[in-house]
Amino acid sequence: MALVTLGCARNDVDSEELAGRLAAEGWEISADDDGTADVVLVNTCTFVEQAKKDSVDAVLAAGGPDSKVIAVGCMAERYGAELAEALPEATAVLGFDHYGSIGERLDDVMAGRPLASHQPADRRALLPISPVKRPEAVRDGSIPGHDWLPEVPRKRLDDAPVAPLKLASGCDRRCAFCAIPSFRGAFVSRAAQDVVAEAAWLADHGVAEVTLVSENSTSYGKDIDARGAAGGALERLLGELAEVPGLRRVRVSYLQPAEVRPPLLAAIARTERVADYFDLSFQHASGPLLRRMRRFGSRESFLALCAEIRALAPEAGIRSNVIVGFPGETEEDLAELEAFLSEAELDAVGVFGYSDEDGTEAADLPDKIDPAEVAARVERVTSLVEVVSADRAARRIGTEVEVLVERQELSEAAAAAYPDLADVADLDLAELGLDAEPEMTDLPDEPEDEAEAEAEDTEPGDLVWIGRAAHQGPDVDGECLLTGDEELLAGLERGAMVRCLVVASEGVDLVVEALEILTPTVDREPAAAGAR
User: Fold this and answer.
1) 38 Cα distance to chain centroid
2) Is residue 305 within 8 Å of residue 260, measured between CB atoms?
3) What are the chain's domains?
4) 175 has binding-site annotation
5) pLDDT band at 152; cut points 50, 70, 90
6) Annotated region Disordered: where (predicted)?
7) pLDDT tier at 254 (50, 70, 90 boundaries)?
8) Among 122, 185, 186, 344, fewest CB within 10 Å belongs to which?
9) Distances 489 to 195, 410, 441, 499 between C-alpha atoms, Å
10) 181: which residues sit within 8 A by CB, 6+ positions away?
């Protein structure tokens, strides 16, 4: 079976749970679809319109002529039988309720037994309105990542030293533009002991950094503590995770500004091994437009929050996403957003153009903005945040950061000289005898055309180490390129934590000089099925 995953880190976790369940039943699992698999599971995304298109394209491209293609994930859950009718290329469309019996469903597919497509329902109605009554109700339902068995299989689909770890699922907020609660359901926290146990399992399998993911991490504990989230369940959990042997960094993502509280800010800023990193979903900064979005806050309150964070941790990373072109957004609203972004000096900002989402309040709002104008506003705000974030990165020059080493890749010069090698995404560079050094040396004037021939001609220095500092989240916030003493660099491995001096910047990326290896790497176990 091949497993193709689209979308966010929450989907990554779901895919690894599906892989674990199937591996435990004897399926051979691959994260690469080379066209030879008997079955291809496509874990779809429906976050925005482009994500839907990408998911459809992935289903159409999946597998070979004899492969069975099954759509799972958010788009499959949201549209179910409608998606199956529109995509006859998919052998089946399964929802979240099928995950617990995924092996049986694949057996049905392989045996040619008819399999009814998932019938969507508003998952917000599946759990009690009262949060404290939900944990018991979850036992009778199916929420990816929330199985209450003592042992739940998870199979890692890569061997990267960083991995997402599901904190909770669902959301109780009703933002006008967002459809996620309708198919991910009401907010449900995972039990703290389950989160810690899974973190320990990940650490045993070579993971040095876990990123806590959910739809709204600030709500964690509202359903397992009579005092709600303010009871400090997340703050306590961070302390427990920081004690897990082998973990070097714990990162929290998806913080809702309206629910952030001073003790949580302090816990993130002061708990050892918890990254000074604040992923705050501001979405906009104009008070009137935020009300129209069914959100809270303003330019002033958001600036005050950023100031509070930087008073606790001056070098903390603060990132966010914003939506431009929301129905009724005026030039004054846009100017307010731009003023906020200029003053807040965030480390990274994702800029999204508004598009209608089925079933949301915003889809029925008047005063829609022409798509061409929305695109122009995206470009305008993106240009601003690129400058602001680059300036913020440049001000880190001369400071020290702790970098988690993640991978090796071809240096810029080597990539230009060896285009075939640069295009081999999964090349095992170590097996080819390439070394990691800070500089390029002695590249031939006329590189060969084939990747293997090019690999034979490479010299020490063709590879560089890439990692991330605490203020840089995976995939979205920039990276660090390590340079420095050749002997020190030669001793690096993935998963090492290195004290570095920032010596240059390019956009949000940093060039750092490695000064000291702070921790040895962790012995890796095979990335096979295991227990949370």
Assistant:
1) 28
2) yes
3) 2-120 (3.40.50.12160), 161-393 (3.80.30.20), 400-519 (no CATH)
4) yes
5) low
6) 438-459
7) very high
8) 122
9) 34, 15, 16, 12
10) 123, 124, 170, 171, 172, 173, 174, 215
DSSP-assigned beta bridge partners for residue 2: 30, 40
Q: Which residue has the higher pLDDT, 273 or 416?
A: 273
**pLDDT tens readout for residues 71-84:** 999 999 999 989 98
Q: With the CA atoms of 376, 378, 379 and 384 taken in that order, what torsion angle do they form, in degrees rounded to the nearest 10?
A: 130
Sign of the Cα torsion 484, 465, 390, 393 reads negative
Determine whether the annotation assigns residue 74 to a binding site. yes
From 414, 429, 438, select the one nearest 512 (Cα to Cα). 438
Strand partners, 348: 319
Mind listing the pLDDT tens digit for each residue in 189-208?
999 999 999 999 999 999 99
- DSSP readout, 292-348? HTT----HHHHHHHHHHHHHH-TT-EEEEEEEES-TT--HHHHHHHHHHHHHH--SE
User: What single-letter DSSP state applies at residue 130?
Assistant: S
Tokens 């949201």 sit at which residue? 78
500 marked as part of a ligand binding site: no
Question: Rg (Cα) of the chain, in Å, rounded?
Answer: 24
45 is in an annotated binding site: yes
The CA distance from 408 to 465, in Å, is: 5
What is the reported pTM? 0.86
In this prediction, residue 447 carries a pLDDT of 45
User: Annotated binding residue at 480?
Assistant: no
* Separation of alpha carbons 215 and 433, rounded Å: 43
Beta strands in 94-244 (DSSP E): 153-154, 162-166, 168-169, 188-189, 209-213
- In sequence order, which residues have a C-beta less than 8 Å from that of residue 111 and are 6 or more positions away? none
User: How distant, in Å, are the alpha carbons of 162, 179, 289, 360 from that of 329?
Assistant: 38, 20, 7, 17
